[in-house]
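re: ur question from yesterday

yeah so i grabbed the chain u mentioned. its 125 aa long if i counted rite. heres the sequnce exactly as i have it in my notes:
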Amino acid sequence: MTKSEHGLLVLTAIFLCLLVAAARSVQQDGSWDYRITARSSQEDVTPEESPPVDLNTADEAALDTLPGIGPVLAERIITWRQTHGPFTEVEQLLEVSGIGEATLADLQGLVTVGDGQTQKQEESK
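ran it thru and got these structure tokens back, copy pasting raw so excuse formatting
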């Protein structure tokens, strides 16, 4: 057996091993068996365990703890609040760029809107 034949045999063996490993990853229905999991610092907190976040008084850090809201969307929420005044209903989040129906659905029960008086008092200080 020449060196090139031996090399070709080794490459074929490696390819077959990869093919077998890939075949084991395919489920019965033909879909790939892979899992994506998301973790957050608030992983075990449910809406019943913590009070809802008030959209009219929450700072960026508080908004960032909400599912689907990162630092960028938190800043957009604060900017919207500064531009338009206090939120009067949670559904106004749809007016914030980057927040859609799915994100709004994820936030139900986790956010609330206060009367905005606390925020106005803090801004006047």
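noticed a couple things. Residues 3-25 form the longest helix (23 residues). also Residues 88 and 113 are 6 Å apart (CA to CA).
anyway ttyl
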